[in-house]
Each structure stands twice: as C-alpha cells, then as structure tokens.
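Issue: ligand-bound run for flavin-adenine dinucleotide - logging full I/O for the record.

Environment: standard queue, default settings, no custom constraints.

Inputs:
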Amino acid sequence: MNQELACLSLAVKTERINELYRVISVEEPGLAKKCRAGNFFELRSSAVSSRKLFKPISVYRVDGSEISFLIKRLGPGSEALCDLKTGDLLELYGPLGNSFPLVSDAHILLVSGGVGYPPLAGLKSALDSSNHVFSLHGATTSLDRFPADEIWQIEGSSEHQGFVTEGILQYLERASVDLVYACGPSAMLKAVSMICAARGIRAYVSMEAYMACGIGACHGCVIPVGDASSYDYQRVCKEGPVFDAASIVWELI
Ligand SMILES: Cc1cc2nc3c(=O)[nH]c(=O)nc-3n(C[C@H](O)[C@H](O)[C@H](O)COP(=O)(O)OP(=O)(O)OC[C@H]3O[C@@H](n4cnc5c(N)ncnc54)[C@H](O)[C@@H]3O)c2cc1C
Ligand code: FES
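Outputs:
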C-alpha cells in the first residue's frame, strides 16, 4: 500500500438511524478534501473480533473535515462497524475508486436502492445548485427509507408501492431527463440501464461487487465491459465503481 493509501486508525462519532442503520463519522481534513461523490473507503472496526474484515463503504457526507458513512447492518463486517461506539477506533483507507462525472444545466434523475443511497446523497449536494435534480429512492421496508423526492417501497404500506423502477418509468412519462445516475443492487442497475438505453438517455451506474483488497490488486471484483462479442474485465474498485451503463455487458452480470 503506498503512502497516499496508508491505513489510518481514527476515533469515530456514531449516530443511530434505526435498528438497521448507523452513521459513523471521522475527522480527517486531508482525506475529507480528497473525497468525491462516488468514492468509497475500506473500513473495519478495530475490535479484535472483527480483524481481517475490511468492507467497502461509500462516502455519504463530507462536512468540513468530517467524513460520514451510512452503514446497513448485514453480516459480520457491517455488524462490527454498526456496533462501534463514539470514541472507538475505526481503521480505514481511501478514498478509493473513481467518482461520478459532474455536469451543469441538465435535468438529472437520481435513482438509489437500499445502501445505494449514500453515494447519491453526496452527488445530489454536488449537482443541486447547477442542475434540475429529481431523486427517487427504492426501499424494501420502512427501515430503508431515506430523504428523496419520491420513495418507492416494496413491503409494507407506502404512498408509492413497488419497485423503484416503476417510479423511473412514471417520471420519464412526465419529464424530459438528460442524464440518470444510479446506485443499488445489480438487478436494479440492469433495469435502469435497459430503461435508459431504450430511450436514448445516458446513465451512469455505481456497481456492487464483492471486494477483497479494494485497491486493484486482487482482481476479485471484475465486471465485463465492452460489448457481448468483444469485452474485457474491469475492476469495480479501481476503474469503477462508477461506469457508463452502456459500457457494461449486462447479459453476463
Ligand atoms: C463500492 C461499494 C460501496 C458500498 N457502500 C456501502 C455503503 O455506503 N453502506 C453500506 O451499508 N454498504 C455499502 N456497500 C456494501 C457493503 O460493502 C456490504 O454490505 C458489506 O461488505 C457486507 O459485509 P458483511 O461482512 O457485513 O456481510 P457479508 O457476510 O459479507 O454479506 C452479507 C450478505 O450480503 C451479501 N453481500 C455482501 N456484500 C455484497 C456486495 N458487495 N454485493 C452484493 N451482495 C453482497 C452477501 O451475499 C450476504 O448475503 C458497498 C459495497 C461496495 C462494493
Ligand atoms: S477488490 Fe481487489 S481488485 Fe478490486
């Protein structure tokens, strides 16, 4: 690992959102300055029981010198991160990966699903002042709801019931969109990509992948990029996580 990517151990501030989600924050002015919307960090709790488990987590918010992460409690790695208490130590390296391209004077649709919300929250702040931005968020249950212009929910009752892809179709009926940015489960990203391709709308997606090193060394996170007859593999942690949706060979995902 080079000097730029030294692993730091920093005290965290934690905030409980609900039984599934926590926001954890660290103060580090040098790193905060480098963060761009779409970047992620590799994080792990310094608690002994969770050694070895670095997890890729997107930058959620940068406020001055404070970097925040929104984390869903899922398996052992994310559990250990969610169990951190204010003052505990977090080990981290980053920021990693590429970032969303920024534009101006465009009508933009942001589409997030589940833990795809954090990078798009940061992107919204970066785009809001110079574009018309509308955000759609897809939740499974009421626990996965985060602030957005429209929230679609699969289980339980909600004003907008169903998959967020239904929200996209309805929005595209009533608005002329130049650009779509999306982050969420692969199935959702594939659907977003198909919807946009059919209408000639450019889309950028931040891809999910199982990651080991997070820095481009192990090739454990590759996805096929190109076209179905001629493609190569690119690393989600290095060339991504943000890709032009049209460049991904979705049939092979
Ligand atoms: C670039 C990137 C950014 C991410 N940003 C965030 C974030 O901001 N907040 C957040 O809460 N999570 C985020 N994640 C997902 C997070 O890294 C995983 O949820 C976490 O690694 C799960 O580890 P675990 O040890 O808790 O669970 P595990 O035991 O590893 O997994 C629990 C379950 O989740 C599934 N799973 C785990 N990781 C992935 C994955 N990458 N893709 C698809 N399915 C998976 C497993 O199949 C299993 O069913 C991000 C992932 C990537 C690649
Ligand atoms: S996680 Fe090792 S190359 Fe991407």
